[in-house]
Amino acid sequence: MHLGINDVHPFCQIELKDRASMQDLLRAVLDPLEPFFSKHKARVNCPGNTAVRFDQSASELEGFARPLWGLAFLLGGHGEYHGTDWWIQGYKSGTDPNHPEYWGYPRENDQRMVEMCPLGFALAETNVIWDNLSQKERENVEAWLGNSINEKNMPNTNWLWFRVFANLGLKKNGGKFSQDRIDSDIKHLDSFYRGDGWSNDGPEGIHQMDYYSSSFAIQFLQLLYAKLAGDEDPKRAAEFKKRAQIAALDLVHYYDNEGRAIPYGRSMGYRFATISFWGALAYANVELPAPLTWGMVKGIVMRHLRWWQSQHAIWTASGTLSLGYSYPNMYITENYNSPGSPYWACLAFVCLAVPETHPFWTSKEESLRDVIPKIKALKHPGHITSYLGRHCMLLSSGQACGYPMKGTHAKYGAFAYSSAYTFSVPTGLFSLEQYALASQLGLSDDGGEYWKTRRTSEYAALEYRGDTPILVSIWRPFPDVTIKTILIPPTESAPNWHLRVHKIKAGREIMTADGSFAICNINSKNGRYLDLYDPSICEETHPKIIGNYDLSTAEGWADGKSGAFAVSKGAVGIKALETQDGRMANLVNADPNSNLAESRTVIPTLQHTVRRGETVLYITGVYAKPTGPREAFLDGWESPPAVPRWLEAEMN
């Protein structure tokens, strides 16, 4: 396949309406991989030629194994695929230690262990692979898939589930496996459980509950285990289903009615895998908790995939999935994202293994609107979610990746994440344009060259002021600078606003930059950058966007109380609501490709300088309205929420 500039990928042309069209959608994902299989089919070298932290053989194994998720679901649901033999042959070649395409024996903490999960699941879900292996080939699979992983150390994270499935695949086919490993790994994984359906992605001391806790790994694999091992392990299966029932009432708040999920945390390059939890509920025959219905679950899945069908830039010219989110982008990737890595997205097709008689398929799609709470506090992830303001948004405090991941402060430490206005990551380490501080407070002690933001917190908790849930965190960007931040969700009377409060005690002089959401920096007239706001077309910005790094032009600044806003795909803005004067507003012209969904963005921002020894109070109103008539995008801009009385008393 070769996609020209004006060509549309087959994935984007399918009318997604039922199980058969979903099967076609998966085939459209798998077909472009054909020319990238190695001669003996054990490796898939997806276009890209980018390096990762593991070796090239493991990278090409990743390209082979991850699409196998989708194929296994398709075959498990009695579907057909013309390229099934590619994976059967690859299984034979890759596990043969005397074959030139042998995958290699894994070392400690080896990436090969990750790919053993889809390889093991495929064996467990369908017998088409095992039945086509000779006795010697089965012995090779047992040695590579079972013995090699059972004798090695693994990261103390969701990875332990991968060893469970390597053994489970062999067990389901009568191969040599370790029940002791299955039992001990699941017992240890249970130590990650925090309650109310939520598991942490790691032990005590790490607070990381992103899509790995639900759709990418833990909840998802618990449900697959409950289905495949439920007869032999009914107690665990029942517990995993119970956890999923409870968690579903929280997880439903991460998806909007337009089909978008809220991007949050790492591995956003897995794209539509964010909805795999919902298909897994049907796969494991979980009874849904009220008020959820199978029509709502089906709606989440189908709307989400349709939204991705509208994202035409996610494909390479060869038709394969690119590294990135809504367009190819290396800035958002992690050091483990090889060109084949995005095919973890095939988890989304778990619903293809669900019988066509299941209510997931027989129900009509339903909306979530007016069914689930508009505001909900999620204790364990430290989130407050909102369905107000015509987008799905969460406020966040306390999470942090357990190791120094690229852009970790943006992926976990931002104050707000939105389904309509995705987060931004830094493109470099010089100036606000490169840091792209969307929904973050940045601080600089060198005049604005280098900036620090919230990454970890000394204290982070969900608290209440009356009936209002708030998030409180205390953090130190520098040893002698302490910040107490309070996040307050939108209200029915001001649905497009949320409040951020920062009390800063400065032991050194620091510049501050408080950023709103990032928004598309392209106008509808001629495709150029946004200009000064034009009421006749209800578009552009206030104040004017000034060229990068030029902070001295007066027309690029406004008083913080009048704020800064930008209008293109909806409207975003920011205002200073504190009583004292001081902060100024401007538009940060963020570096291209810093945002997940929009390649060109601008960030309305409040800036200020805090003198050494000062304590200052910032009360920031952040505005966002992504949909509706263009002339109504700014309807709420002149009516920010009142500062709560309890807040003034508490912060003073």
TrEMBL record:
Signal sequence range = none
**InterPro entries, sorted:** DUF2264_C, DUF2264_N, UCP014753
Q: Which residues form a coiled coil?
A: none
DUF2264 domain spans which residues? Answer: 18-367, 373-649
Matching Pfam families? DUF2264, DUF2264_C
Name of protein:
DUF2264 domain-containing protein
What's the source species for this entry? Clonostachys byssicola
